[in-house]
Specification:
It comes from Corynebacterium glucuronolyticum. The chain is α+β, with helices and mostly antiparallel strands. Helix content is 18%, strand content 32%.
Amino acid sequence: MKLGTIRMAGTDTEEHTTCAIILSDLDEAGRTPGTVQVLPVPGVRDVASLLAMPTWRDSLTSVYSASRITSHSAARNTVLHIRREDLLCPVLEPRKIICVGVNYRRHIEEMGRELPAYPTVFTKFFDAVAAPFADVSVPSYATGSIDWEGELAIVIGRRVYQADENVAEEGIAGFAIMNDTTMRDYQNRTVQWHQGKSFYRSSGFGPWMTTTDECGSGLSITTLVNGVEKQCGNSADLVFSPATIVSYMSHIYPLNPGDVIATGTPSGVGFARSPKERVTDGDTVEVIVDKLGSISNTFRMQRS
């Protein structure tokens, strides 16, 4: 099942939102379609609010069943057709956004590093993420070295604390897509990466959360810049699997419904290319993940 957060018709802000069951299939290329059919979940603001309900799966079953047994005219009024631009981050304000670095074997090799013994982790603030099809506005002082990092993101579905990998895996509600946009010049100012990873509304996140039962393993991850492929990896290349990451982090602090973990990026980032490449004004970065759909953000550079 695909669960998203949508902007309600007639509003231009994220203040009027609702969680929704996504009914549309992906297009033939595995991308998010331009028009999306959704079934709103009444009284639930976003996916995190839904996951906080102990019986959220039962609630979804009730909503879906109700839409099927009503009259055809009522069902047409219940199901909405929205533009993909009205899809918001599935979790609007994650309490935790944990990111894992150097977690794909080929990416580690291109960066000239050894395989890590433990996950390399850092954090983003919730307002570092951008809607899956929103423009990203970059301050003039941060335009010099913007890089793409297409990633598979975990969404936690239940409290997980001090858990082994089996229990940790059960705590994963589903997966989404993130572009861990990185300002390399800021990242490399110190040994701490946070300042290069948390620019305001810079990292596309979405287009929705796909529940684990529909994902499987070995998901392909492709990043394109202006339609040109830059990254092509597979989650089978992860050094630390989603279950391993969740278990590891749960021994540091509890993970709660709606927490998000970006699992790392495959090889092909601009910084590691020769010559180096970067995102420039008007460039569109698209990330496609097998079975999950796609996100696409166009970067707009502010003038000083």
